[in-house]
Design a protein that fits this description.
membrane, Putative RDD family membrane protein YckC, two-stranded antiparallel sheet, cell membrane, 7 helices, Pra-immunoreactive, mainly alpha, 7% strand, transmembrane
Length: 144
């Protein structure tokens, strides 16, 4: 008897991905580690080049308070289509790919990154452990 989508036994089964190993859905631990690496990197770059200071009062910070966020989005948009993921993704062995196959293009990383910085879409998952930001963009983070 064929399985319905609700009866899938592992994340990625509905997408035709293997249960584990190479090209399986990247699990939560790896994705959180990639996010932390990318955020720390963005904060360091914002501090070095954009005058960001974690210790500035909100009244003193002005627009520089958004500098790490801006750097984070730029890094995501630049690196996902060129090397298959952000530096954090690549360091933890993940790759962001188009679910339909082929080149991911430029619009998918833009949409994915903007939804990621809103946080809520990233914490709403489906049975394949894909966040809403990935579902809307048509992407999936795979172990590589």
């Amino acid at each position: 008897m064929p399985q319905t989508p609700a009866e899938s036994t592992y994340p990625g089964e509905r997408l035709g991905l293997p249960p584990q190993g190479r090209r399986s859905v990247g699990r939560v631990g790896r994705r959180i580690a990639a996010l932390v690496i990318d955020w720390v990197t963005a904060t360091i770059l914002a501090t070095a080049f954009l005058g960001y200071s974690m210790y500035a009062l909100p009244s003193e910070a002005g627009l520089t308070q958004f500098a790490p966020l801006l750097v984070f989005v730029i890094v995501q948009v630049l690196f996902i289509p060129t090397i298959g993921g952000s530096p954090g993704h690549r360091l933890v062995g993940l790759r962001v790919v188009n679910v339909a196959g082929g080149w991911i293009g430029l619009w998918r990383p833009i949409v994915r990154s903007l939804l990621l910085v809103l946080v809520i879409p990233a914490v709403i998952w489906d049975a394949d452990q894909r966040g809403l930001h990935d579902k809307i963009a048509g992407t999936v983070a795979l172990r590589w």
